[in-house]
Design brief:
The complex is a heterodimer of chains A (about 210) and B (about 475). In chain A, about 35% of the residues lie in helices and about 20% in strands. Chain A is an alpha/beta fold and about 210 residues long. In chain A, the strands form two sheets. In chain A, strands 3, 4, 5, 6 and 7 form a five-stranded mixed beta sheet that branches. In chain A, helix 2 packs antiparallel against helix 4. The longest helix of chain A is centred in the first third of the chain and has 32 residues. Chain B folds into three domains: about 140 residues, Copper amine oxidase-like, N-terminal domain (Copper Amine Oxidase, Chain A, domain 1), CATH 3.30.457.10; about 100 residues, Immunoglobulin-like (Sandwich); about 200 residues, Aminopeptidase (3-Layer(aba) Sandwich), CATH 3.40.630. Chain B is built from eleven helices and 29 strands. A seven-stranded mixed beta sheet of chain B has the order 9-10-3-2-1-12-11, sandwiched between helices. In chain B, strands 25-22-26-29-27-28 form a six-stranded mixed beta sheet. In chain B, strands 4-5-6-7-8 form a five-stranded antiparallel beta sheet, with helices on one face. The two termini of chain B are about 40 Å apart. The N terminus of chain B is likely disordered. At the A-B interface, helix 4 and strand 7 of A face strand 28 and helix 9 of B.
Chain lengths: ~210, ~475
C-alpha cells in the first residue's frame, strides 16, 4: 500500500475516533442537563419560601383514626416557622400528604400534590390540590369528610391567621372531592369528630 | 352565582330533550292474563313500547321503520301511526295524542294516552284505566275500585265498588286479599286509613301478584275477617294487646313540623355515582356504582308495590350524571321524596353499619349574609333543602330506625348531618343512605347477593311507608 494512502487511512480513523467520543460525551452532558434534580420538598409543586435555618415549631396534624369510624386523631410534627402564614400552611399540607407516622389512615392520597396555597387578608386559606386527590381517593362519605376536615382543622388549629379553608382542584372550584361533600364554599373548623390527645370523645356525627 | 342561576335556567329549558329512562311499569289486564310493560320517560313524556303491547293483545300489525309507520288491524278498523307525528289516523279520522309517536332504541313507542284515546276507540272491546294511570284493563268497563276505612277503634272496612271475591290469607299480622286476574284499583293515598293498629294498606300488583296487603301493627293480638257479600265489603276486626286499647287513634304519633304537606305524586330514587365515577371499590370488579343501581332498582319495585306511588330512577343504567343534573331533574319533576343509595367505606371501623344522612350547611358568615339578602325575595336554588330540612330529618329518623332494626343488629345508631352537595339543593324531603362498609369481609361477600339487596330495599321501603302518613295529609 502506498505510504500516502496509509497516512490518509490512519488520519481518517483518528478523526472518526475523536468524533465518536465527542458525540458520546456531548450526549452525556445533554442528559445531565435535562435530568430533573431531586425534588426539594415532596408533595409541593412550589416549595415553600422558608429558610432551612428558620427555627422549628410544633404543629398538630389531624389524621383519620384507624380504630374508629368518623374520627380524627392528632399527631405532632415540626415545621419551619415563617412570618408568612401561607408558607407555614404549605408545609402543613405537605406533611398531611406524606401520611401518618403513627399508623393512622391517610388524610389525603399520597399521589396528591399541592399546586398552590395562599391566605387572604380575611383569613381564608385557598388550598389548590392536583386532581390525584379525587382520582386516588378511596371514596365513601366518611373518608371524604375525614380528608376535608384533616386539611381544614390542621390549618385553622395551627395558623392563627386562617379561619376558613376553600379547597380547589386543579385551580378550579370542584363539585365534590369524591362525590359527596360540597366543595363550593369555604369550610370552617369543626372539631366535633376529633379526638384531642388520643382520648375518645363522644361525637354525635360530623 | 349568576352563572349558576343562568345554568339552572338553561337546564330547565333543555331538560325535556333527554335520554329515555325507565320510570316504572304499566300493567295491562287482558282475558285471563296480565303483563307489565316498562314506562319509558323521554323528556317529560311517558311512553310505552307499542309493538310489545300489540303482541300481548294479539293484534296483527305491519311496520316499516324506513317509511316511518305502523299500521294496526283490528277487525274492520285500521289504525295508522306515523313516526314523529302526534296524530294517529283511525280509518280516516285523526286522533290527537299528547306527544308524537317516536322510535327509541329501535323500538316504536307511543305516549301513555294512546291506550285511552286511540286503542280504546279502535278495539271492539272497552278499555278501563286505573285511577293512578298505571294500569289498564282490556275488555272491562271499569276497574273494581277498593277503599279502606277505619269504622271503629278496632274495625277496618274494605269496600269494593262492585261485587268481587277475593282469596283471603292471614299470615300473622299480614292479611292478603288475592283478587286473581280481576282488575282492581286501590284509592291510593286518599284511601289509606290511619290508626295506630294499622301499619300499612297497599295494593301489590304485578305480573305475578294482584293483591291488597294489610299489615297490622305489633300491638294487635288477633284479627277476624268477615265477607259482607251483599254489601261488596270485607271487614277486619282486631283484638289488641292489653294496654294498647288506652291509646287514642291519633293520626300521627309525633308532633308534625309546621310545614305544608301535600299528596305524593312520585318518588325519586338515586343510585350514587355511575359511569367513570365508580365510587368505592368494594372488591375486585365490584364497585359502589353497580351495587347502588341494583339496590335502587329493587327499591323502586318495593316502593311501587307497597305504596302504589310511581318511582323515578335518577339513572336507570350505568351512566355518568353530575350532581346538579340529578338535583335539577328531581326539583323540576317536583318529586315528593328523594333517596340516594350509596355504600359505605369506613376503613377505621370493623363494623358494617348503615347510616342515613341529611343535609347540613357549613357555618360561613359571608354565605349566611348572602342567604339572608337573597331570602328577602327568593330562596337560593343551592339552598332549596332548607325549607324541607325538618321533614328530611324526620325521614332520616324513620330510615335509621328501620336500618338499625334490620341491618345494624338492633344498635341504637342515629342519623348524621353532613354538608352534602346532592341534598342541599333538593326542594323535598331527602336523605342519602350509606349501606354497610366496603372494608368488612362479610359485607364484601354479601353485597352482590339478591337476598341482601332485597333486604336493603325492603328496609328502606318500610321506612318510607312509615314516613308517608306523617308527611302526606289528605
Amino acid at each position: 500500500m502506498p505510504r500516502h494512502i496509509l497516512f490518509g487511512l490512519v488520519f481518517l480513523a483518528l478523526i472518526s475516533l475523536v468524533g465518536v467520543s465527542y458525540y458520546y460525551d456531548l450526549q452525556k452532558r445533554i442528559q445531565e442537563l435535562v435530568r430533573p434534580g431531586p425534588e426539594p420538598t415532596p408533595y409541593l409543586a412550589v416549595p415553600p419560601a422558608v429558610s432551612p435555618s428558620a427555627p422549628l415549631r410544633k404543629v398538630k396534624l389531624f389524621f383519620p383514626s384507624s380504630r374508629q369510624d368518623n374520627l380524627l386523631e392528632v399527631e405532632e410534627r415540626d415545621i419551619r416557622s415563617s412570618e408568612l402564614p401561607s408558607e407555614e400552611a404549605k408545609q402543613i399540607v405537605a406533611e398531611l400528604i406524606s401520611g401518618s407516622r403513627e399508623r393512622r389512615l391517610p388524610a389525603l392520597p399520597s399521589e396528591t400534590r399541592l399546586r398552590e396555597l395562599f391566605v387572604t387578608a380575611q383569613g381564608l386559606a385557598v388550598v389548590d390540590l392536583t386532581q390525584e386527590v379525587s382520582r386516588h381517593h378511596p371514596g365513601g362519605l366518611t373518608m371524604e369528610l375525614a380528608s376535608i376536615y384533616s386539611v381544614v382543622n390542621s390549618l385553622t388549629q395551627n395558623v392563627s391567621k386562617i379561619d376558613r379553608v376553600q379547597i380547589l382542584i386543579e385551580g378550579a372550584e370542584a363539585e365534590t372531592l369524591a362525590g359527596h361533600i360540597d366543595l363550593s364554599r369555604p369550610f370552617s373548623e369543626d372539631l366535633s369528630m376529633t379526638v384531642l390527645g388520643g382520648t375518645a370523645k363522644s361525637s354525635g356525627g360530623p | 352565582m349568576l352563572i349558576k342561576a343562568l345554568g339552572f335556567t338553561l337546564c330547565l329549558a333543555l331538560l325535556p330533550v333527554g335520554v329515555p329512562a325507565d320510570t316504572g311499569r304499566f300493567l295491562v289486564f287482558h282475558k285471563q292474563a296480565r303483563k307489565a310493560f316498562p314506562k319509558l320517560s323521554v323528556g317529560l313524556q311517558t311512553y310505552l313500547p307499542v309493538i310489545d303491547l300489540l303482541h300481548f293483545l294479539e293484534l296483527p300489525y305491519s311496520e316499516s321503520a324506513s317509511a316511518g309507520f305502523v299500521q294496526i288491524t283490528m277487525g274492520k278498523n285500521r289504525l295508522r301511526l306515523a313516526k314523529d307525528d302526534s296524530q294517529v289516523v283511525l280509518n280516516d279520522r285523526k286522533i290527537a295524542l299528547s306527544a308524537p309517536v317516536t322510535v327509541v332504541k329501535n323500538q316504536w313507542v307511543v305516549p301513555l294516552d294512546f291506550v285511552s284515546k286511540a286503542l280504546d276507540r279502535a278495539l271492539d272491546e272497552k278499555i278501563a284505566m286505573s285511577a293512578s294511570g298505571n294500569a289498564a284493563a282490556v275488555g272491562e268497563s271499569d276497574f273494581t275500585r277498593l277503599s279502606a276505612k277505619v269504622e271503629t277503634n278496632h274495625a277496618l272496612r274494605l269496600q269494593a265498588s262492585r261485587p268481587v271475591s277475593a282469596e283471603v290469607q292471614q299470615q300473622g299480622l299480614r292479611i292478603v286479599f288475592a283478587f286473581g286476574n280481576t282488575p282492581v284499583d286501590f284509592a291510593g293515598s286518599e284511601g289509606v286509613p290511619r290508626a295506630e293498629w294499622i301499619r300499612s294498606v297497599a295494593l301489590d300488583q304485578s305480573e305475578s301478584v294482584n293483591q291488597l296487603v294489610i299489615e297490622l301493627a305489633d300491638n294487635v293480638r288477633n284479627a277476624k275477617i268477615s265477607h259482607l257479600a251483599s254489601q261488596n265489603a270485607y271487614t277486619v276486626e282486631v283484638i289488641r294487646q292489653e294496654g294498647a286499647e288506652a291509646k287514642p287513634d291519633a293520626p300521627a304519633e309525633l308532633p308534625r313540623p309546621a310545614i305544608e304537606a301535600w299528596k305524593w305524586r312520585h318518588i325519586t330514587v338515586d343510585a350514587g355515582h355511575g359511569g367513570a365515577d365508580r365510587g368505592v371499590a368494594i372488591r375486585e370488579n365490584v364497585f359502589e356504582k353497580d351495587v347502588a343501581l341494583a339496590i335502587a332498582r329493587k327499591l323502586r319495585w318495593a316502593l311501587e308495590t307497597r305504596l302504589g306511588v310511581p318511582v323515578v330512577l335518577s339513572r336507570a343504567e350505568d351512566q355518568a350524571q353530575s350532581l346538579e343534573d340529578r338535583i335539577t331533574a328531581a326539583n323540576l319533576a317536583r318529586s315528593n321524596l328523594f333517596i340516594s343509595i350509596h355504600t359505605g367505606n369506613a376503613a377505621g371501623s370493623p363494623a358494617a353499619h348503615s347510616y342515613a344522612y341529611t343535609a347540613r350547611w357549613i357555618t360561613d358568615e359571608s354565605s349566611a349574609s348572602e342567604t339572608r339578602n337573597a331570602r328577602s325575595l327568593f330562596v337560593p336554588w343551592w339552598e332549596g333543602q332548607r325549607s324541607n330540612l325538618a321533614w328530611s330529618e324526620r325521614l332520616a329518623e324513620c330510615v335509621q330506625a328501620e336500618m338499625n332494626r334490620a341491618l345494624n343488629g338492633g344498635q341504637p345508631l342515629t342519623f348524621r348531618r353532613t354538608p352534602l352537595k346532592l341534598l342541599s339543593a333538593l326542594a323535598m324531603p331527602a336523605v342519602l343512605v350509606e349501606i354497610g362498609n366496603a372494608r368488612v369481609p362479610d359485607f364484601q361477600a354479601n353485597v352482590e347477593s339478591e337476598p341482601f339487596q332485597n333486604q336493603v330495599a325492603a328496609t328502606l321501603a318500610a321506612a318510607v311507608e312509615k314516613f308517608r302518613p306523617l308527611h302526606e295529609r289528605p
